[in-house]
Design a protein that fits this description.
This protein is of the alpha+beta class. It is about 55% helix and about 10% strand.
């Protein structure tokens, strides 16, 4: 072992899953006590990380997240309905009910998601069709929209069709309002319920021109433009969903990273506090930018351990002196302290492993190979938890143990 060490940290799969699942359940309103107990039971197996337990965690995690996704879709559909009612007077009378996660099993949650997926799809289609029918109905409510105009009529003095264009001599067949309205309804029904207001306006402007078509061919040409705008509106909706999903994934990754960092910090704090070290009060909030923290012991008035955790992925620690040594005896004491620290670090690694925090030592400096660095450091600010554990250890050892004091 070493008095200076760097180690890579890796959380086992069960810990990672449990942290994410805890966060997901925290966003699920109405988590019942039994559900929380079930989660705690799953979390209890994180240290062993047996494959069966990990598989069960994964199943439950997927089921919970599917429910949350479907609940979000229901909320989005309710908002789309509200906007459709404001714009077009259209309303769906029945919407799927979101699910409150409580004590359901993974199978029960998955079954609900399957049913909800069908119901949500049907509701989305129904809303799109009703909006399309309302828009088409508004556009074709006016008879004098040019649909029955006599396009063969010409103003006095207008040029007569030439003999080379005999088809122009025949009056054009007017478009049928009912057919054009039905065609427009079918095209508009392809708009997703979450179409943006600006896209609705863009499509509606093109749709209104269909009502002015003089012939079936002209109506079809104008419908083509409507189709193109519907396609663009749909693509815009898909892009918005993808961007929202990307933002949500980025946020999830940041929250997971912070949860993992905090879990490692808590595990390290607990491990070293249980072993009799006093942990600097700032340790719980340290980040890569915040720098190092100190571990101290009552019986080490002139020694401390400087420790740094980088992004919950690497830990660096080194024993140091808080003042320069003044004798060979103090040099020899440094080696003793290094050996004690080395043993403590190995014990801490075992404690961390039991909590699901693995560590792989990349670099070490053996005791006695170099003089300890000297750094003037304040005594650590003992956390309330550390003080409580110190008192508890005192009660467990009546009379106390002899303190190992530095030699002078």
């Amino acid at each position: 072992m070493s008095s200076g060490v760097e180690a890579d940290i890796a959380l086992d799969a069960a810990v990672v899953l449990t942290l994410g699942l805890n966060r997901a359940l925290g966003r699920a309103a109405g988590l019942g006590a039994a559900g929380a107990e079930a989660l705690a039971a799953l979390a209890a197996v994180r240290a062993a990380a047996r494959q069966g337990a990990v598989d069960e965690l994964e199943r439950y995690d997927r089921a919970v997240r599917d429910v949350l996704d479907h609940n979000a879709r229901i909320a989005a559909l309710a908002e789309s309905q509200r906007q459709a009612e404001q714009r077009f007077g259209v309303r769906l009378h029945v919407l799927p009910e979101p699910l409150t996660i409580a004590t359901q099993s993974a199978d029960d949650l998955a079954a609900w998601s399957s049913r909800a997926d069908v119901e949500i799809g049907e509701a989305e289609r129904a809303l799109s069709e009703r909006v399309a029918a309302a828009v088409a109905g508004r556009i074709f409510d006016t008879p004098a929209a040019g649909l029955t105009s006599d396009v063969g009529h010409r103003e006095p003095g207008a040029a007569q069709p030439s003999a080379a264009e005999p088809w122009a001599a025949e009056p054009a067949r007017p478009a049928e309002p009912a057919q054009a309205a039905e065609a427009l309804r079918r095209v508009l029904s392809r708009l997703p319920p979450d179409t943006a207001a600006a896209d609705y306006q863009h499509v509606t402007e093109a749709a209104q021109r269909v009502a002015g078509a003089a012939t079936p061919s002209a109506a079809e040409g104008l419908l083509t433009e409507v189709r193109l705008r519907v396609q663009r509106a749909t693509e815009n909706a898909v892009r918005r969903r993808a961007e929202l999903a990307r933002q949500a994934a980025d946020q999830e990754a940041r929250e997971q990273e912070e949860a993992e960092r905090q879990y490692v910090l808590d595990a390290i704090t607990s491990a070293f506090t249980d072993m009799g070290y006093e942990v600097d009060a700032g340790f719980e909030t340290v980040t890569a930018e915040a720098g190092e923290v100190l571990l101290t012991r009552e019986e080490w008035p002139r020694h401390a351990v400087k420790m740094r955790l980088d992004d919950a992925s690497q830990i660096r620690a080194a024993l140091l002196r808080t003042e320069a040594p003044r004798s060979d005896d103090e040099r020899r004491l440094d080696v003793e302290r290094e050996e004690q620290w080395c043993a403590a670090f190995e014990e801490a690694r075992a404690r961390l492993a039991a909590a699901g925090v693995g560590s792989d030592v990349r670099w070490r400096l053996e005791p006695g190979l170099q003089h300890l660095p000297v750094a003037a450091t304040p005594r650590a600010r003992t956390t309330p938890a550390a003080k409580a554990k110190t008192k508890e250890r005192g009660r467990e050892r009546p009379g106390g143990e002899p303190r190992d004091r530095d030699h002078r």
